[in-house]
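FIG000605: protein co-occurring with transport systems (COG1739)
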Amino acid sequence: MIDHFFTISTNGTSLYKEKGSKFLGFSYPIQSLQHVNEKLEELRKEYHDARHHCYAYMLGAESKDFRANDDGEPNHSAGDPILGQIRSLNLTNTLVVVVRYFGGTKLGVSGLINAYKTAAEVALKNSAVIKEYITVPLHISYSYSTTNEVMKLIDQFNLHIINQEFTERCSLKASIIISQQKQVLKELKLLIDIGHDIQIL
């Protein structure tokens, strides 16, 4: 079971020059196709006088949603090299855009591939790569006298507490790494079976 993925947490930029052409690279952490479109629109407005805005993105924990766009460059000379750099770092939820200002001299397909690849590579190197875990929610209520047992379980599995309330009847919301879900629920049911007042909501 996949329980984590790698993505970037910060934007990155780059500048690559070749025979008068300038290639401006931009990398962004993204969460949705809408986010992709918003970033593309921002760059098209800011660099409206550029010849090409080529890009690639990867979305989803299993990296099944992706696209590469050449934006008028020869087929597979721009979008694919950009996507290749995202894949080479095993990243997802990542968008890379390379904006080209034409310098008057044609670079040929191999020259374009190298330019777009390099601009994407450097932009990604200038972003912070992080590991993110896939989590599911846990919501329980329990008697105050059971607090110690609940906290031991939280510490044992290093659960991230989202919200916690201490009243006559305590409640807790946390996130569980998906690969630990069965074991956490098993431990909770064991506590219930031996008489602890816990409800899984």
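thats it. The first strand starts at residue 4 and ends at 8. Helices lie at 33-46, 79-88, 108-125, 147-157, 181-193. bye
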